[in-house]
Amino acid sequence: MSTLPPANPKASSSSSPPATGADGARARRILSSKLYSDVPSSKVPLVYSPSYDIAFLGIEKLHPFDSSKWGRICQFLISEGALVKSRIVEPLEASKEDLLVVHSESYLNSLKSSARVAMIVEVPPVALLPNCLVDQKVLRPFRKQVGGTILAAKLAKERGWAINVGGGFHHCSADQGGGFCAYADISLCIHFAFARLNISRVMIIDLDAHQGNGHEIDFSHDRRVYILDMFNPQIYPFDYEARKYIDQKVEVMSGTSTTAYLKKLDEALEVAARAFDPELVVYNAGTDILEGDPLGRLKITPDGITSRDEKVFQFARERSIPIVMVTSGGYMKSSARVVADSIVNLSKKCLIDMETPSARA
């Protein structure tokens, strides 16, 4: 029987952070940002840029993450006729001023060290490269994806849904990167939504195999954000401090099967629906739960991931809540196909609409 999650340190905090000079600077940065560009109706709310993909002398292959996954997802969708290339929304790259909405100046300065970036992306040879190259070949693709996640929230508010075929860097907080996550795109997306979309309550549904410790730290005392995190506690990041700030913690142990996983998800969504009434859902849809993934260690089938995504989008659709999906982790070459197949299924089930108004006419 499902029960409401136990109280956590958020419960004693105010509904929103007190106004400070820092909050004023944040608001000014958000209001002056160019990331919320107007998107014509001829485009579908699926965000991607070829700049997302990381290719740098083969060094990217030293990390298990498929750094061309994002482009391959779009290639599959286009080849299957589910998506027309010209209708993809291309975001702008997040600028330093955009990043300062969440990140500290000292953290951004730390990324000027190639050794520091090498630790974050877990590819030691990156430490030996000139930082200008590291910035261009590694960090710039991440900044482009950050721009994509931020823009996706605006599209979701306008169209009901949006998918950034990238992003989901949930291990990064304001002052700390790690786990292949250099920028806190989820936290940034939410702060932009607060300031510019007239949204005051956001639910993060994090179904990546790993704990989303970055956004948990960033919103540790912010009751406007409700976090449902369903993760394997037996793998990275082992962030016990951040776990204190999860509103609804659902642990799935190594070896969990599809049936058991989906049952837990159904129960979790029922609890979440009773516990919080969001105006936006940010869905971190990592595919590292896939059976055979070397880092996730779960045993979810491709069809299981399709069902998982369908359940989350159905949750949002039934409540008329705009939903933003980001693709997050997934450490096998097969992940791109699984994500594409799931998006096709969402379209077939009419949970997203991949046709433009002109196409329907």
UniProtKB/TrEMBL annotation:
Residue ranges annotated for the Histone deacetylase domain, each copy included: 63-344
Keywords recorded for this protein, A-Z: Chromatin regulator, Hydrolase, Nucleus, Repressor, Transcription, Transcription regulation
An annotated Gene Ontology molecular function: histone deacetylase activity, hydrolytic mechanism
PANTHER family: HISTONE DEACETYLASE 11 (PTHR10625:SF23), HISTONE DEACETYLASE HDAC1-RELATED (PTHR10625)
The protein, known as: histone deacetylase
Entry GO CC: catalytic complex; nucleoplasm
Taxonomic source organism: Eucalyptus globulus (Tasmanian blue gum)
Cofactors: Zn(2+)
Main enzyme class: hydrolase
Enzyme Commission no: 3.5.1.98
Region (Disordered): 1-23
Subcellular location: Nucleus
General function of this protein: Responsible for the deacetylation of lysine residues on the N-terminal part of the core histones (H2A, H2B, H3 and H4). Histone deacetylation gives a tag for epigenetic repression and plays an important role in transcriptional regulation, cell cycle progression and developmental events. Histone deacetylases act via the formation of large multiprotein complexes.
Principal subcellular localization: nucleus
Catalyzed chemical reaction(s): N(6)-acetyl-L-lysyl-[histone] + H2O = L-lysyl-[histone] + acetate
